[in-house]
Amino acid sequence: MIAALSAIVVLPAIYDEYSLLQLTIYAILSVLALSLAFIWGYGGILSFGHAVFFGLGAYSYAIGAINFGETTIALLLSMVIPGLFAAALGYFLFYGRISDVYLGAITLTVTLIFFNLASSTSGPEYRVGRVPLGGFNGIPSIPQLNVPGFPDWTLSTTELFALSVATLALVYIGLRLLINSDFGRIVVAIKENEVRAELLGYDARKYKLVTFVIGGAIAGLAGCLFANWGGFTSPAVFALGQSVQIIIWVVVGGVGTLAGPVIGCVLIQWLTNSLASLNTVNNNLIMGGILVVVVLMLPQGLVPTIARLARGRRPVQRLDAATKGLGGASTKSEARA
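Now predict its structure.
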């Protein structure tokens, strides 16, 4: 929270509007990374189609904001609709006892279905209320978020940056508190040994479903912020590459952590943007290379590896200190003798 408040106060005074936009997208995508970090790292649910909830959040906000004018309802819809879809899909997956392999295949298929559906809505008949879906062209001119109750008070670039950073901090803290609660401990226990948890009386299907819904709602919130950031959304938000990118963020940062995926997201996005600006290397090639290197060299991810190395050094330091103390004591006793 201190880091978030410092960023909100200090960075707008240092960077220009363009740089703030770049920092804003890092914060927004970090929220998206946290949503998968929670359901995969702590719930044990690997979704290959997590971009579905991200895209539903972006489209729900765009359609709601244009139709209603005031964006408060649209903001709520961007979380409710992905959450409801996650509940429907999760009920089928978890209460149907779908295995992990088939769960990955089904979520992968779902994101392909949504991508194709969104891409096939270019005709004038494809509209929701006053909003034409636009097919590949997407939905342009999406209204900016406004302060609830004040439709004319829309967020500026600096205010959107502050909102995105604050959302990232609140989502991180909220997930941390949830993981440390009784609910979170049960979710982790189910991930570690589902059969044992059920023998203790916990309904693993229910806990997995709630975890999946929470992750979907958070991803939808990230989609809402993304639509505000660009003022535009298109079927690309449902693309398979987007889902794979989220998985890479989590793998690079470290599965089973919350800070790791945030760090992985920022590092990879910065690296790909920097290299892409040179127009010499394809982004997909960069992402694939990063994934291969991390899996081979750092299979646990950056944060767990650094933490393990730090833990490995501390006992040695304590042992050295204790040895010096014992050596000093023995020397004094020998002197007395």
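The chain is about 75% helix and 0% strand.
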